Amino acid sequence: MRWAGFLGCIMLIVWQEFQGSFRIGLQVPLRFDSEKKSEKVLRIATFNVALSAQQPNGLKHRLRSTSDLQLQNIAAILQKIRPSIVLLNEFDFDESGESVGLLQSNYLQRSQHELKPISYPHVYVASSNTGIQSGFDLDRDGTLDSPGDALGFGNFPGQYAFMLLSQYELEREKNRTFQKFLWRDLPGALLPDHPDRLGQGDWYSKDELAILRLSSKNHVDVPVLVHGHRLHLLLSHPTPPVFDGPENRNGRRNHDEIRLWSDYLSGEERANYLIDDAGKSGGLHPEDLFVVLGDLNADPVDGDSYNQAIRQLLEHVRIHPAVWLDDRVPRSEGGKFQKPRNPQHRGNPAEDTAAWGLRVDYVLPARELEILRSGVFWPNPDETEATWLKPSSDHRLVWVDLKLP
Prior knowledge:
Layout: E1 10-16, E2 22-24, E3 42-48, H1 58-63, H2 69-81, E4 85-89, H3 98-108, E5 122-125, E6 162-166, E7 176-177, H4 206-209, E8 220-226, E9 229-235, H5 249-266, E10 289-295, H6 311-314, H7 322-325, E11 361-365, E12 370-376, E13 398-403
Parallel strand pairs: 3-4, 9-10
Antiparallel strand pairs: 1-2, 1-5, 3-13, 4-6, 5-6, 7-8, 8-9, 10-11, 12-13
């Protein structure tokens, strides 16, 4: 994902036959959820699957088995919830497409816990800044090649990447990526201050800022065609706002990674500075439909995010207010039973999406889209499905059912 020739995003459209052979571009019948027989509903989800390995090709090796417990339970959750579109965070980049093919053939297309198999004919695998060494000591630990010195934290190129699975056609020729956008080029960027100096934004040198990208993984706009509508899927996975020092470099970067999408949604003058990897400037058009997806590593109430960073999106005029204000906020029955409980927790635990008690994973639709239902897959401890959680991920799948205009 990050080798010199791998920068950029690739689209792989795949379908696995029951025998497991690999074919390109073959369409399969799509599945629709319906409240009424005449009403087509789009179920869209995000899921940090925590599958990243500690060495290159480690995930691919695991995927060659059909009996990996974590992978079986991840597949079971997807087969249970059955989203038509799902973003998977922390799935190591594999340019060849073999990893996603193995995930489908060995797990998703095989029944888990007696559930119906599921298949995704359209796949988008995003390259990532994680693990691309900068050549500088960005974390000030005295070395030049540690994971913290990469353009995005990572032990190897491609670690902690993300990919999109879809049962709808993706318009790959209209993709926009902001992987190479420099942090310093964000107007008013919250560049960290060195705690031992009097200057502002001086944690990084001029030479470091000349190569340091804003996105810790990638920021990608992937258009998908759903029932004749073009829906822009805005995908990212900002850095956690922790694991730093008094300079708060990760907290500030997390804030500005989220701000990129806020400005992108605002469009017009607010987004004129944004130049994608193909050289196109600007943000979304006012009439564009969209959904923001991903592990954004920011809770609106609790946690260590900088200046309540996620509110830049939750309170954005273009985001559907129901994701913040009413009973359509994704919730679970099991979140309130999380252990250990955070004694300083102020938010509603039913809205948490991480095992440590924060809401960090989001599906944020445009206000023009009707939200019919939503949820967080976190069963009560006494439910059978609760046994799938710990062996799957420390995050919970978040889903929303949408009706397009």
